[in-house]
Amino acid sequence: MKTAYKNVLVAVPPPAHEWYALSSDALRRAASMLSLVPGVHLTFMSVYSAMETVGDGEVNLLPPEVLRELNDAREKQLKEGVAAYVKWFTDNGVSCEVVIEEKDDPADAVVAAARKRNADLILVGYHHDEGLFDLFLPDVAKRVAKHAPCDVLLIAPPKK
């Protein structure tokens, strides 16, 4: 593990996912601590899926213009949510940027962004609870940790 990280990618869960609220707060606290390191640059990344917005049926019966409107509305909502999430950082002069991507697989998108940006560290939220759902859809955080080209810090809120 490196002693100082200069290029940190923070994987921000979509604000609409209220069950990630505690992880989002824990992520923000960890990122704020890292922002105190001189010369650090934070990239806040959030990924959304058009399929999540409209469903993932085999045949999409929505007209293309309706699908485009839904996708644009989802992206706008996400950008506003992430902008609010990083407000403290921008208000305090922290070197940071926001990246919003539309991809079907958030883990792949985060790993690809880390490679593209030569990240030293990825911060990603992690939940403690595992259940039957995790057997069918592996946790994004675990997949990022397994395939990342750099160190990964899994941030979990304390158990209640």
Question: What this model shows, in words?
Answer:
This protein has seven helices and five strands, in the order βαβαααβαβααβ. It is globular. It has a five-stranded parallel sheet with strand order 3-2-1-4-5, with helices on both faces. The protein starts with 6 loop residues before the first strand and ends in a 5-residue tail after the last strand. Helix 1 links the parallel strand 1 and strand 2. It has one domain: Rossmann fold (3-Layer(aba) Sandwich), CATH 3.40.50. Helices cover 44% and strands 19% of the residues. The protein is α/β, with parallel strands linked by helices and 160 residues long. The longest helix is centred in the middle third of the chain and has 22 residues.
Summary tags:
alpha/beta; Rossmann fold
Helix content: 40-55%
By CATH reckoning, the class would read Alpha Beta
Total beta-strand segments: 5
Query: Termini, distance in Å?
Result: 30 Å
Instruction: Provide the succession of SSEs.
Output: EHEHHHEHEHHE
Describe the oligomeric state of these chains in a short phrase.
single chain
Q: Going by CATH, what is the homologous superfamily? A: HUPs
CATH fold-level name:
Rossmann fold
Write the layout of secondary structure elements.
Elements: E1 7-11, H1 21-34, E2 41-48, H2 50-54, H3 64-85, H4 87-91, E3 96-102, H5 106-116, E4 121-125, H6 132-136, H7 140-147, E5 151-155
Parallel strand pairs: 1-2, 1-4, 2-3, 4-5
